[in-house]
């Protein structure tokens, strides 16, 4: 054993020894227990596997009274060292193996003391930045997610990579101990703050219902409910089941109005704008609508500059709605499994609160911390949620390091079943299966691709109506030479051409050559695309330059502006969509989007083969049947757009467009 341990890095050896102390056992017995179940497939994994085993065993003991260990930084110190040891398990992984351990521990003490003295200073935006980003070794994304798979406190394995990116965006995507320790302490502060919140007036919360966010009190910013032409300030409370609004009275709050977010009906919450006399001037509100309610509920979150408060509340409310839709869709009936998902959602909201406290000047994107809001937004997110539901049924929810057990140890949760009281001291079994990791990675990579493609369309959103008309006019110029020819044919201006087209159409239809004609046209399109690719037109066509001609415009009166405002908005949106659509098609034709062009060419060839082999009359019959099906009156609740439509939309959104520059 001594021969193997000497190849461990100094931090790995130190972590293993401290884990043995936590387990109240000797180092030799702990290593022997590990080696008894370890399969030596690859000797290079011995150090990391030993660190993983010892960390899991030690954390199962530490999670019983985790709140006390967070306050004295012992939990954050040990778990941070576990991440360091996981990243650098071997002696050869250390950059400076001769550095004394005593010096390393002394530097840690200095960093911890500095962080404790400045714990009230927001992260990344203060003079304490040199202390928050210390010279101590930092940890990366993989180690952070690995720790989240053991104890879902600082991160959840489902969205841990997105959380890490958001937290470390200002520090080169490396996590330093002062920031990590402060994040855990902010989470503990948020939990204690939520525990002190008063129950909404006239409401008795369920046994497993807990307050997750409150605003509209004397110590927080205002919340206003709009009912017709009247406005009522009050207190807004969010729980893991419902939303409560209490109108402010003369002395106390009125009885709360409950908005049940857990009911199995069609409901939605969207951003909205409010203003005097119904004018949509201030984009700082949300509107909640439900199928079982004829009246929408409008809530405004006033603030001077941005609408970050509104966006924060919008994300939280949607997260609770998505949580209950997830439990209903995947038929999760077990109370233990359902409560585990509740606990993971609540911890995600607490992480978001902590991150907002640490980054007050530039609040993080809420969806990066919320599991369901994230995967209902990014491509292939439905695949991740499906894997999450499958793995939830395999996870050990009764373990001391499960999300529900962590909340219970921090006094925010009461056990709802007797089974949850049985502490399981074995190694945690969480939903970190290879299929889930693969789905997360695929969704993450496609999100980056979509963001890159969407970035190419952002500049078109800033153009005005005049520029939009100019771009559309320039894009449809090639059609100007084609449309007159068709007009000449259909108006019999050239009888010979008209008769020739008519005869060809009759022959093709009679001989059932419609499919072959279309197949020929599709093959011609593929040949043209290959020809454009051979000419490397995509290398030279990086942007379209449109020269703005001198245009004189009369100033409109205030009355005409008000009356035409909505019409201009609609026209502008139509022009914007048309321009982007044409530019995306152009990117495919010239292989600017090479991967998408390949897919289109393969699809066109496949369609051409089908049309060439199968009689076209069957396609016509199918189209007729489909048209009747599409127009048939629908019954029951609509299930929303299908998976095929979602895949097509995600593919379309990932197509970058050619840059457009309007030059004078």
TrEMBL record:
The keyword Membrane applies. It holds the Pfam family DUF639. Keywords: Membrane, Transmembrane, Transmembrane helix. The keyword Transmembrane applies. The chain crosses the membrane at residues 499-527, 574-593, 599-620. InterPro entries: DUF639. This is Uncharacterized protein.
